[in-house]
């Protein structure tokens, strides 16, 4: 039988993000403090989100509303990267991006962290935008998961295919 293994991934459920966006749009249209500010939120492509408002402070408040909805849907804020508000004519705009996958430099950093722990028989292999960690004992793999959860790599990590 093959050694036990698991995958370290950084994926976000697009449907959950879409639900959070729709909830935020509904709240922005109904809240009293957003009336008359032309504040809106919408998809701008596959992984980008655009927020627009008449004033910069309402735009920042709209970003906070969206982040609140992401948290309620169990989506890590590390998976959402937002830029700085910029004036565009009479309105202010900001673009946010949903981050998917583990970049190669982050994957190398995670792999190095696992190697530095010096657990016997545990290997980490980079496979595209994810990391496969395998080892002789399941206890060692659970120790690796605990180690990775305790460290902050600046991205949202999930552990899948544990077998």
UniProtKB/TrEMBL annotation:
Q: Does the keyword Plastid apply?
A: no
InterPro entries given in the database record: UPF0234-like_C, UPF0234_N, YajQ-like_sf, YajQ/Smlt4090-like
What does UniProt give as GO cellular component? cytosol
Q: Which UniProt keywords apply?
A: Nucleotide-binding
The lineage's top-level taxon is Bacteria
Q: Which residues form the signal peptide?
A: none
Q: Name one GO molecular function term.
A: nucleotide binding
Q: Which family does it belong to?
A: Belongs to the YajQ family.
Explain the purpose of this protein.
Nucleotide-binding protein.
Return the NCBIfam families for the record. Answer: PRK05412.1
Instruction: Report the protein name in the record.
Output: Nucleotide-binding protein GCM10017577_23630
């Amino acid at each position: 039988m093959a050694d036990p293994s698991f995958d370290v991934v950084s994926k976000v459920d697009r449907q959950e993000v879409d639900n959070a966006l729709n909830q935020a749009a509904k709240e922005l249209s109904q809240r009293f403090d957003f009336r008359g500010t032309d504040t809106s939120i919408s998809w701008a492509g596959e992984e980008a989100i655009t927020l627009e408002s008449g004033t910069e402070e309402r735009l920042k408040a709209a970003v906070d509303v969206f982040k609140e909805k992401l948290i309620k849907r169990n989506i890590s804020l590390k998976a959402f990267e937002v830029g700085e508000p910029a004036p565009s004519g009479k309105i202010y705009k900001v673009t946010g991006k949903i981050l998917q996958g583990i970049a190669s430099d982050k994957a190398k950093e995670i792999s190095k962290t696992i190697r530095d722990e010096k657990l016997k028989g545990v290997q980490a292999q980079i496979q595209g935008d994810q990391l496969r960690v395998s080892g002789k004992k399941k206890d060692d793999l659970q120790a690796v998961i605990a180690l990775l959860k305790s460290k902050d790599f600046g991205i949202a990590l999930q552990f899948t295919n544990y077998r």
